[in-house]
Amino acid sequence: GIHVTTRVPVCGRANQSTTQTFLPPEADPALLTRKGYLYVLADSRADSAWVAEIRAQYYNSASYDVLPCLQKVLTAVYRASPQAREFMPMLLVVQGLDIFAVGTDTGVIWLARFDEIKRLLPNMREARLLDTLPPDGDAPACNLYGLQQRLSIGDAVIMATQPGAQRITDTAIRRALRRAESADKVAATLAK
Question: Which pTM was predicted?
Answer without folding.
Answer: 0.85
